[in-house]
Design goal:
This protein has 105 residues and is mostly beta strands. The chain has one domain (8-103). It has no helices and ten strands. The protein has strands at residues 8-12, 19-27, 32-39, 47-51, 58-60, 65-67, 71-77, 80-85, 88-93, 96-97. It has a four-stranded antiparallel beta sheet with strand order 1-2-3-10, with no helix packed on it. It has a four-stranded antiparallel beta sheet with strand order 4-9-8-7, with no helix packed on it.
Amino acid sequence: MQIVGGYLLSLELPQNRAHLTLNVTVDDARFNSVNVKFSNRDGSPIRVEMNHLSISLIHHPESDLATMGELEEVYRIDGGFGLWGDFGTVVVYCDDCSLPESQIR
């Protein structure tokens, strides 16, 4: 299942900073999606930096789906993960990501 390259449907960061969850499509034709979760294994709060953020709805006429753009890449950084897509750049300082290892650069 290829998640990176899917479209971002929602982004959740609770007030307690326990996790960052992205809901990403995995099949445009059927509107299937999965949650990608970033958190700390010990339950401590994560730190999130949002840079050059531009969240807006984009309509995809071929699938009749409105999204916040494509999740282009998830990559490792010192102490966490970087996320890059049509929505901007998000840096998450945490030690766990639910993405399969093969999809993290």
